[in-house]
Fold histidine kinase.
Amino acid sequence: MLLVFIIVGVVPLYIFSYTLLNNYEEKALSNKYNQMQNQIIMLSNQMITTGYLTLADVPEIDSEVKRLAEFFQGRIVIVNNNLNIVEDTYGLYDSNKYLVSKEVIQCFEGNSSRVHDKENNYVVLTYPITHTTEEEKVIVGAVVMNSSTKDIQSILNGMEQRAIIFTLALAIFIVIFGIYFSMRLTKPLTDIVNSIDHLTEGFMEEGVSIKGYYEIERISDSFNKMINRMNKIESSRQEFVSNVSHELKTPITSIKVLAESLLMQEDAPVELYREFLVDISEEIERENKIINDLLSLVKLNKTSGDLNITSVNVNDLLEQILKRLGPIAKKQNIEIIYESFRPVMADVDEVKISLALTNLIENAIKYNVPDGWIRVSLNADHKYFYVKVADSGIGIPEDVQDLIFERFYRVDKARSRETGGTGLGLAITKSVVQMHRGAIKIYSQEGEGTTFNVRIPLNFIS
């Protein structure tokens, strides 16, 4: 960020300063050349009218030439059409000398020339002297005028110094501001990192509380939501371990008590043996159900590559499930209504889908009210098939609806224990649905019943 500030702040200023100085130099030199050219033109007119190029002895012209040379802090050399030097303000050449140079030759071809010597700080303008008549224009001589550019260079040096000072001042300000702003911006992030490190040490109950920018506060809030959810899941898991330990231990304890009671009675009648053995069998079945649910959940932890995909008639599958669960519903006088809107063939794992749908319908029976009802419907479109399981049961509180699909979670713990629930049924159902690239949603209101909507693709894509 500090680098960005420097690039955005200093680099454009440097480019602007460089462009400004170059433009000033070009403009100043252009003005210098224009002034020199204008003076040469006026001087040329005077020389033609007085015949100076042939006489070379006109005091007024000599004094004007010297004045211009002093004004431009340079040197003026005048040559005639024979390349003979007529005047040299430095007095280095007399009238017997000739000036032959590329620039002078170009003048007699009608072209002026400009030369800028940056190293020695002067410019040279070679300009033709033109005699204009009614018939034609004749070049009768040339003026070579040197002029010092020290004044321009002095101004440029002053401007460069100011630009450097201003750039350095701005750079220092940007660095200080960048450091301050970077620290201010990264401090909330550093606080979040410290809070996360604190959480990894086991202080999960404290959460993260960071005040700062809106986005930082959103990160803090989202992280706290995640921590709260993790705490709830961890709490439910710990509770499950306790419950499962109790559930697994209770049947074994009951079996042990029943067996010891029989062993203590040497002459116990056959009816008593039968009664105790029935109780032992029920406890073994209860133990077996808990173990099977745990094994099912472990198997579902594997990838979808373990699915045995076949083409299944979902209508027949639902009818088989309802037929199997019908006697359980009949015991509680619960009416099951099944609606099939169209024939549905889908590529699914029949065993796992059957397990998931069975769990939903069985839960609707277990957590229903006496003389209640269950409505199961099947529908499909060109891409998915939909199973809806609605009941008139006890419903699920809104504040725990996000947790019911978590493993080991049970809404009504006492009733779950009475019905043999382990808190794994809905976790198994959701795992099966997700393995088929589907989705499951719940709509429930406490005391008014629950509705589960399941959506599964007709064609499985791995």
Remarks:
- The mean pLDDT is 82.
- Residues 150-200 form the longest helix (51 residues).
